[in-house]
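re: ur question from earlier - yeah i can do the single chain one, its not a big deal. heres the input i used so u can compare w yours
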Amino acid sequence: MEFIETLLNGLSIGSTYAVIALGYTMVYGIAKMLNFAHGDVIMVGGYMIYLTMAGIGNPILGLAVAVLFCVVLGISIEKVAYKPLRGASPLAVLITAIGVSYLLQSTAQIIFGSAPKMVIVADLGNLTIGSLTVPYYMLITLGCSVVIMLTLSLFVKYTKTGRAMIAVSEDKGAAQLMGINVNAIITITFAIGSGLAAFAGFFMLMKSPSLSNTLGAMPGIKAFTAAVIGGIGSIPGAMVGGILMGIVEALSLTVPAIAPYTDAIEFLVLIVILLVRPSGILGKVRREKV
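and the output i got, formated as tokens:
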């Protein structure tokens, strides 16, 4: 039973990483840039949940406000910081993304202070089946994450906008010649990724009610690692990578001898997988035309 509880915990953690990784992988797959400010959008979503809960006390409304605010924030970041650099070198875009990340962290610290805030989203209790005890937040996180991932996959595969995203990810120039508004598709991608970041912030606060301006820093890095493990640019790869990272983390934490080195073990998994398969588990090997 202890192993099943650990496995469910790993799936819960991994599904949160997967939701965050979807934002990374979609932006990279379509805009070909690494948005390292994505983890800090999670933090902003967390603070919006905190403010809504403090004023109204309704967690569902708090999530809705956070999603809306993060979508607007994501679109604004893309328009102000990234769109002017559309033709710039990848290094310039990367440095800008890091700058945006620190800007969001510093702004949150100025507004809310450096002391962590306690955000009790809901006291859900535990589900007990025989000797198996599972917190309800784990089941909610896992269930909602699966629904989000399936919905996003169906959206990309079957809607006109989703097919346009695929076309832009394959060849921006050809997509533009076919009448696709590339700038609009990139904006929509940022909006979706930022909305998913708000969901991730909600899941993280259900697990741990402590909120600070660095809430999304390490989860963002781990989710990016998950996206690379699964194959950056691949939506199913982000899901697989996130779940794998979560299970490795949960299993490592149950072994006292290696628990302090959990983060190092997760990044070691990344190195091993990339040595065996440089494009990631489900990543496509792209051949450069000469």
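Residues 71 and 159 are 20 Å apart (CA to CA). not sure if urs matches, ping me
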